[in-house]
């Protein structure tokens, strides 16, 4: 009788007498025989205890045959130099003329408060196993321990986990840890997450946890996904500062704007940014693009009532916008051109606005405010985003410039993400200049068929050339003594 060994089990083969008995069986037994033969031919697999687990349990957990004892944070580990030398920290300690190279006991100094016993246990244990399961809630202490022990593989695994689990609850602590331990990619991912999600996922807890430096960086970013207009950026900055000044506030988030308004409007020492408490926030409010707030009457009055921003800031902005309006009125400004506006200037000066497209259907809208005679209609239909220079086709409540051609400089982004703010779909258009005749329209972005809703649309645009950047006029300017004349006067 023959047999074979498979997966640790012995299987007995069929002998000659058994084969003769099979031939005598009737036809009805054939199906059962085939199934039985199939079972006999298929080796039964039994999962063996892996070498990695055996090493981890026997050597790390039980400490068998240990040749070095590590003391740290009030705990001792019975370990093995040959495994510890996978860590650059221990490899350098045990080599050369260091006194620790011949010691049997090592007392580790742990200067990093982020490292706890559980994190150090995971870091040391990773030297005895092939893989490590990391929980997002514990990844920062483990990253700290891995950085101390210079465990590059574990550091990379921590970075991957952090990138995959950025959320309103983790983005601040992840950014702090990534900055401290040199994970530049994770740091950038945290900033990118905030740029894309901050305005849409505002929480009092998130605003309270954000540092002033990080918040200012995001507010000043040209990639900030603004919903709806620049006035909403100003309102968020105001809420952020209010929460920093009143850290004990724990009211309903729906009332946060109202409470912030009441606080600043009743601020007794005077205009907030001119007081001692307000000086540290001057640079933050400088990041708000006031030129795109004062183009709306209600918004400009709201800012003045808040008693935050000094008039010395506002008056030059009003003057600049008034002169820009005069240039358009007199035909000296037809809108931005690539020669006059660099990408860097566009990023600093452009209007930032956005909208949420809830489902796949047709939308048409405009962002309100004084747009210097450029009534731009935005249409989303059949996954296309379309710009239209409106002069007569649709009702217009504001003044419309009737120049034959007007320029608009813009960049468009669309994005959809899950409940944690992780990108499901995104598309970004290039920086472009369109020259539009009256009532002309143009497709500015085409979205793929697999786009997921709700979809966020972000638009950065300039409808005018900022003051002082206009191209030289073709005709000399009129002497000051020459009277202004219009066609109706002739």
UniProtKB/TrEMBL annotation:
Gene3D superfamilies: Potassium Channel Kv1.1, Chain A (3.30.710.10). Residues 16-40, 469-490 are annotated as: Disordered. Keywords: Developmental protein, Differentiation, Nucleus, Spermatogenesis. InterPro entries: BTB/POZ_dom, Gcl-like, SKP1/BTB/POZ_sf. CDD domains: BTB_POZ_GCL (cd18305). Its main location: nucleus. GO terms for biological process: germ cell development; spermatogenesis. One of its GO terms (cellular component) is nuclear matrix. Residues 29-38 have a biased composition (Acidic residues). It is found in: Nucleus matrix. Residues 66-136 form the BTB domain. This is BTB domain-containing protein. The lineage of its organism: Eukaryota, Metazoa, Echinodermata, Eleutherozoa, Asterozoa.
